[in-house]
Amino acid sequence: MTLGNRTRLQFEFIEMLLAYEGEITNQRLREKFGVTSVQASRVLASYRDAFPYNTKTLKGQGRGRYVPTARFKPEIADLTIEAYFRSVKDQVTHVKVEDTQRDFTNVDPALFRVIHSAMDQCSATRIFYRSMNNPEGIERVVHPKAFVFAGRRWHVRGFDELTEQHRDFNLARISHAGSASKGVDTPTDVEWEEKVQLEFRPHPSLTEGQEKLIRDELFKGTVGRRITTRRALIRYVLRDLEAAENPETQHPPEFQIYLFRTKSLRKEQ
Q1: Antiparallel, parallel or unpaired: β 138-150 and 65-68
Q2: Does 98 map to a domain?
Q3: Could you give the number of structural domains in the chain?
Q4: What percent of the chain has pLDDT over 90?
């Protein structure tokens, strides 16, 4: 079934609420998408026509209220709790959510514009960068490639002419940025281009009961879980998941899962 982007988002939202809240209403669609009551009714009617076995009218509760049937099966949405909270994040009157995640990166918009422009034009920028090794700062010419949000910090990934390496630069540690000419051509960032599959499992030091708990909590009861990322971002994923890379030296309770296997998804030549 071919759907337009907006219709797909609306149908996904309908399924998220049916699955996690047990009800979808005309009002929730109006609030979420800024549509009229008539338009919301049409969206609901379209969804019910497309998937008639998924909803039934909630009797005695007013018009435009539907609940999932016993045969409900999501056809559009990928049901995860993360996706649900992302869908309803702007509807705080219906869902109470407190977010403890904080972005500690302090970035000057004018500085960001320079880096963004260089990235957009595939050019270079001359930055003054402070680090733990050089807290006073040092000048570098960088070819920016992508912005990366890692935990509580924003980074820019780029080729550094000084070290002749692709590196991640904390945006908050850049005190100045200006346009610059490339001193060399930008080489391929092999670690960025390579996708890898990371397989996580419960830490081998856990007891049998603890292992089952972690499997039920994080792996849907299965042996482990696989995710795909770029090789250049592995350390950020490990840090975010609090996963041990070396279970012999990184132990519970700080580390309850570990990186069991890394598989390259690079196509063989």
Answers
A1: unpaired
A2: no
A3: 3
A4: 81
